[in-house]
Amino acid sequence: MPKILVIADDFTGANATGALLKEKGFNSISFLSYQGIIDGSIDKDVFCINTDTRAQDSNYAYEIVKNTASQFRGKVELISKRIDSTLRGNIGAEIDGVLDGLKQGYKAIVVAAYPSSGRISVGGYLLVDSVPLQKTGVSKDPKTPVKSSKIIDIIKAQSNKNIGYISLEDVMEGYNRLSERIINDPNEIIVVDAVSDEDIDTIAKACMLSKIPIVCIDPGPFTAAMATNLLGQDYNNDKKHKILMIIGSTTDLTRKQIDYVSKQRNILIWRINIRNIVENLSEEMTRIFDYVKNNNIENKYLCITTSLKSEDVLDLKLLSKQYNVSPNTISYKISDGLSKIAKYILQNPIFKVSSVYVSGGDVSQSFLKNLDAKAFEIIEQVIPLAVYGKIVGGEFNGLNVITKGGLVGDDKTLDYIVSYIEKNIERRN
């Protein structure tokens, strides 16, 4: 049995989505017909099935899609109803068919955007190369003309289900809040705006976080994003590699960067107890380990930081008087403690780290020293004053590390760097 089922209304559409999934590492096969598709001898990750129903009667299309979906009910991990990128065909009827062919509880998430092909959705409208759909040549298609640009209206004309809508503004708030919108929307079909691949990935992450069984309704990119988020890490690598962030900077900008990235991604954040760092580092390590152990499963990102709010920043001069040492000694203890915590995490198999982001000059230097690194191989500049390289020597020779100063970039910089790690570093390894 495959892991992913793609039901398409024509052969080239089935092939197109199969190709996108192939790029993500999933072996795909495209069937010419919906008949005779259950074959245990075919060992492929993805079955793409052509129902050939785009220009057929809507009732016929509904029944074919319903029967196809029911054959795979409970047997695959992800189901996609591939739709035409210009919304031709029996879209509403086929969405109803796939939902009725599955068990209750599924929601159909419609993401009509295909940004790399010039298709974006804004305000519930589909634009093709910035032109409303109904003003393109598709309105004169000889078989299946489309006379509207509003995605919901096109689906409503053919569907018996209730349809909801989530705007681009909601998507831009990040996948945590978007997940809440999906959970609280009572409709079986939800149309969601997107203008970029990043928006589509945000929607996929929100669907994952919601824990609701999802059917992908899209021309391909949303299905690929869902497959990667649902199966990609475990399926292709047999383990989830994590990104560790060690942030010693206490600037307002750094806190804004943490706040922004935490709204875009499901990040496990631990704010260290500075007094524990100075007085009892082993106790702080135990607390962190317990926290990570109990919350690690769903998180690809772990952030260890010294402050999340301005009131978290302690007065080093005051601390130095309390402990009867110099402010520099307190600063050193904090940097050294953070670095030892990072090493402790790297050594522990519960959190398999592939890349480390370190913010703050003192912390970066202390981090490399604590790992017994001999040098830092500079590979490239990510942004001005943020550098990607690899550790040379020591127990973690070859580990990917990005170092950045605390006053570098804007609110979105940390999120950009995490995306850089995923797109450029992890892909190479």
- The CATH topology of the largest domain is given as Rossmann fold
The class by helix and strand makeup works out as alpha/beta
Distance between the termini: 29 Å
Number of domains: 2
Low-confidence stretches: 233-239
CATH classification class of the largest domain: Alpha Beta
Give the oligomeric state: single chain
Summarize the structure.
This protein has 429 residues and is an alpha/beta fold.
Describe the structure.
The structure is a single chain. The chain is of the alpha/beta class and 429 residues long. The chain has 2 domains: 4-236, Rossmann fold; 239-428, 3-Layer(aba) Sandwich (Molybdenum Cofactor Biosythetic Enzyme, Chain A), CATH 3.40.980.20. It has 15 helices and 18 strands. The chain has helices at 11-23, 58-71, 91-101, 151-156, 168-172, 175-184, 197-210, 221-237, 252-264, 274-279, 281-295, 316-323, 327-347, 361-370, 413-428, and strands at 4-8, 28-31, 46-50, 78-82, 107-110, 119-122, 125-128, 131-132, 163-166, 189-192, 214-218, 242-247, 267-271, 301-305, 353-359, 375-383, 386-392, 400-404. The chain has an 8-stranded parallel beta sheet, sandwiched between helices. Strands 13-14-12-15-18-17-16 form a 7-stranded mixed beta sheet, with helices on both faces. Strands 6-7-8 form a 3-stranded antiparallel beta sheet, with no helix packed on it. Helix 2 (58-71) packs parallel to helix 3 and helix 12 (316-323) packs across helix 13 (327-347). It is elongated, with a radius of gyration of 25 Å. The two termini are 29 Å apart.
